[in-house]
Write a structure and sequence with these properties.
Elements lengths: L2 H6 L9 H12 L3 H8 L3 H8 L7 H11 L3 H25 L2 H4 L4 H6 L9 H9 L4 H10 L3 E2 L9 H16 L8 H6 L1 H6 L9 H10 L2 E5 L10 E7 L2 E6 L6 H18 L5 E4 L12 H18 L2 H10 L4 H11 L3 H10 L16 E4 L5 E4 L1
Parallel strand pairs: 1-5, 2-4
Antiparallel strand pairs: 3-4, 3-5, 6-7
Helix pairs in contact: 2-4, 3-4, 5-6, 15-16, 15-19, 18-19
Length: 380
């Protein structure tokens, strides 16, 4: 027996139609339906349909019954409301049984492990509650209306369900953060202060980043990546007054985290009027892997913004000409330009001036830890 049949065979609702109560009153009074019709001024057909559960008790009917049967109108209207709610829930059970296949497209087990979903609910109910929608059709309408610009590449296998679940969690986390109204000017003015944070322990920068950015109207959140998501971060305007930057720690080192952060800042400052919602998957190669050619330009511009913000081009050029990239040289250069040394290592590796295994001791490693208070935190 499938789930649809099981839902259909559920016991009838225990909530009676108001007509059953009306019929009980008639029996008690020794009246016929026609007697009640005369006393209320309603037609015999109306009384018959109410008593047989085929017609609702409306407000005028409830007022008429109030006078004749000596029970207030709200009593009859409450009976009607309770019956309709129970009937709607019964119909929902039948419909929701058909949504199981849709729900299983989402990474439910992983979402439960990360506490995205509330316990004590069915899979479908928990998912709908989390997404803030009433049906799969509603979810599809909301997701389509969000106008997400996603740097899709052929390199990563992705799932729109996993992506939308991650996006929804970033919204819920951001909703808990109070921010000032978004200000392009204040965000630009905060860049140097944010850049200086690269020099402190990466596990301690979450709160300072959030504080600085919230003053410019940007909520910054960290949400673990889901499988088949292939996302390193996103930048979006939640409203005209609030922006969001969300990060995943996908590559688990401070250089990648900071580059992604400033990449998303670049999207907000450079592209928000054309692309108000951008998801990034941090592919190193932006050439033939990018499916959407227009996104290639936006991504290249955001990459350049992040690279130049973290390490000024002139300073990098002068350092590279020395052709000496020992850990001590890198540390001294990072001190000179007042930036974390791991970021310099990451840039030199990207430029292929260092091999991928060189200099990594100067990077800070990051990972997720699920705290007892249900918040996700990251640490070294």
């Amino acid at each position: 027996m499938d789930s649809v049949q099981q839902a259909t065979l559920l016991p009838p609702t225990a909530v009676p139609h108001p007509g059953e109560v009306v019929a009980d009153y008639l029996e008690f009074q020794g009246w016929t339906q026609r007697d009640l019709a005369r006393r209320t001024g309603l037609t015999p057909k109306t009384i018959s349909e109410i008593c047989n559960g085929k017609a609702p008790v409306t407000a005028p009917t409830a007022l008429a019954l109030e006078k004749v049967l000596q029970r207030p109108a709200h009593f009859w209207l409450n009976l009607q409301r309770q019956f309709e709610e129970a009937e709607a829930r019964q119909l929902y059970l039948v419909r929701s049984a058909q949504w199981a296949d849709w729900a299983h497209k989402f990474p439910l087990r992983e979402m439960r492990k990360l506490r995205f979903l509330k316990p004590g609910q069915t899979e479908v109910d928990a998912l709908l509650h989390f997404l803030g929608v009433s049906s799969p059709e509603s979810w599809d309408a909301v997701w389509s209306a969000s106008r997400v610009a996603y740097r899709q590449t052929r390199k990563f296998a992705t799932s729109v369900e996993a992506i939308s679940a991650w996006v929804r969690e970033t919204e819920l986390v951001a909703a808990e953060l109070q921010t000032a109204d978004f200000s392009d000017h204040l965000l630009r003015a905060s860049i140097e202060e944010l850049r200086r944070l690269t020099r402190i322990r990466a596990s301690e920068v979450m709160e300072p980043i959030q504080k600085i950015c919230s003053a410019a109207g940007v909520a910054v959140v960290w949400v673990p990546e889901l499988h088949h998501c292939a996302i390193s971060g996103c930048a979006r305007m939640l409203s005209d007054r609030k922006a969001l930057i969300a990060l995943t720690l996908r590559y688990k080192t401070d250089d990648q985290m900071w580059f992604t952060f400033f990449h998303e800042v670049g999207h907000l400052l450079l592209h928000r009027k054309n692309r108000s919602f951008v998801l990034d998957n941090a592919a190193d190669n932006l050439s033939d892997q990018v499916v959407d050619p227009e996104m290639q330009r936006y991504e290249s511009e955001a990459n350049q913004f992040a690279a130049d913000t973290l390490i000024p081009p002139a300073a990098l050029g002068e350092f590279v000409r020395k052709k000496s990239f020992t850990n001590e040289d890198i540390h001294d250069f990072a001190e000179e330009i007042r930036i974390g040394p791991g970021i310099v290592v990451g840039r030199l590796q990207h430029e292929r001036l260092l091999a991928r295994h060189q200099g990594n001791t100067l990077k800070q490693k990051l990972n997720w830890q699920l705290a007892e208070d249900d918040d996700q935190t990251w640490r070294q």
